[in-house]
Amino acid sequence: MGGEIYANVRPQEIPAFGVLTGFRVSIYNKKSLCFVKVQGESKRKVGRQETEGCDIFQGSWIRDDSYPGYEYTQCPFIEKAFNCQNNGRTDSEYLKYRWQPKNCNVSRFDGKEFLSRFKGKSIMFVGDSLSLNQWQSLTCMLHSAVPQAPYKLKRIGTLSNFTFPTYGVSIMYSRNALLVDVIRENDRRVLKLNSVASSSKTWEKMDMLIFDTWHWWLHTGRKQPWDIIEYNKVLYQNMDRLHAYEIALNTWASWVESRVDPRRTKIFFQGVSPDHDRFAGLPFDCERWRQPLTNPGVRSKPQVVLEKVLQPLSKRVNLLDIYSLSKLRIDGHPSVYGSGGHRGMDCTHWCLPGIPDTWNQLLFAALT
Question: Where in the cell is it found (predicted)?
Answer without folding.
Answer: Membrane
